[in-house]
Design a protein that fits this description.
Elements: E1 7-11, H1 16-27, E2 31-36, H2 39-49, E3 52-55, H3 61-75, E4 80-83, E5 94-95, E6 98-99, H4 102-127, E7 139-144, H5 148-151, H6 157-177, E8 182-189, H7 195-198, H8 202-209, H9 221-233, E9 241-244
Parallel strand pairs: 1-2, 1-4, 2-3, 4-7, 7-8, 8-9
Antiparallel strand pairs: 5-6
Helix pairs in contact: 1-2, 1-9, 3-4, 4-6
């Protein structure tokens, strides 16, 4: 799919991978709407790229439906959805103070996994009503997993479970939507320079970066964005989960 002129929605667009992707899409000519719970951050990026920002909680059905309605009124039905919203709190299943509160696990699943499904279901419903492009394509949905889906570390049980669910969602969704010309893909990043990692002490950042075989550094949001752009433009990439990690394989802790 050529990006120029099409409407796109990026969740978590106010920072990190989402902001990098929103910038790349706008540069490619897309009409971009940014969803984020932090409306001020999303507005700042939207102002920079000529996009539109909406306050959306991806884990809430009504919030997502309202966000899509506002985006459609502004730019038309989106042919492109990139899910970057997510949280990554660390906690052991059984820690020094006892069992992890169930609500903490539920919150991670709700934002990361349910949030990705929530936007997918609304986006695909609207995409199915669009006229197909010349090659029969109507749209594409890209979600963000993590290498933790495959090598979750101690303390990442909730996060790894949520990202593993996103990995497992890609193929059945792609198969279901194939008859409508809607593709579904997933990117599984390794260590990327997002606010979560960049907020750590420099010595911790350096230690983590050294674990990446090559290049031995954090990935850049624009590198994630370049892969997302390629997935959008290459119609044969469908139902795939692509690791973007510099060959890292996470150790137990």
């Amino acid at each position: 799919m050529q990006i120029q002129g099409h409407a796109a929605i990026v969740t978590g667009g106010g920072s990190g991978l989402g902001a990098g992707t929103a910038r790349a899409l706008a540069k490619a000519g897309a009409k971009v709407t940014l969803f984020d719970v932090n409306l001020d951050a999303a507005k700042a990026v939207a102002a920079e790229i000529g996009g539109h920002a909406v306050a959306v909680d991806v884990g809430d059905a009504a919030s997502v439906e309202a966000g899509f309605a506002e985006a459609e009124a502004r730019h038309g039905i989106a042919r492109i959805l990139v899910n970057c919203a997510g949280i990554a709190p660390a906690a052991r299943i059984v820690g020094k103070t006892g069992a992890m509160p169930l609500a903490d696990f539920e919150r991670v699943i709700k934002v990361n996994l349910i949030g990705s499904f929530n936007t997918m279901r609304v986006a695909a419903t609207a995409m199915q009503t669009l006229e197909p492009l010349a090659d029969g394509e109507r749209g594409i949905i890209i979600s963000t997993a993590s290498v933790a889906a495959f090598e979750g570390q101690i303390g990442q049980a909730a996060y790894a479970a949520s990202k593993g669910g996103i990995v497992s969602l890609a193929l059945p969704a792609a198969r279901e939507f194939a008859r409508f010309g809607i593709r579904v893909n997933t990117i599984a990043p390794g260590l990327f320079g997002t606010p979560l990692l960049l907020g750590m002490p420099q010595e911790v950042q350096d230690s983590l970066a050294a674990t990446v075989p090559f290049p031995s550094r954090f990935g850049l949001p624009e590198e994630y964005a370049r892969l997302a752009i390629h997935m959008i433009e290459n119609a044969m990439i469908n139902g795939e989960v692509v690791r973007l990690d510099g060959a890292i394989r996470m150790q137990p802790k």
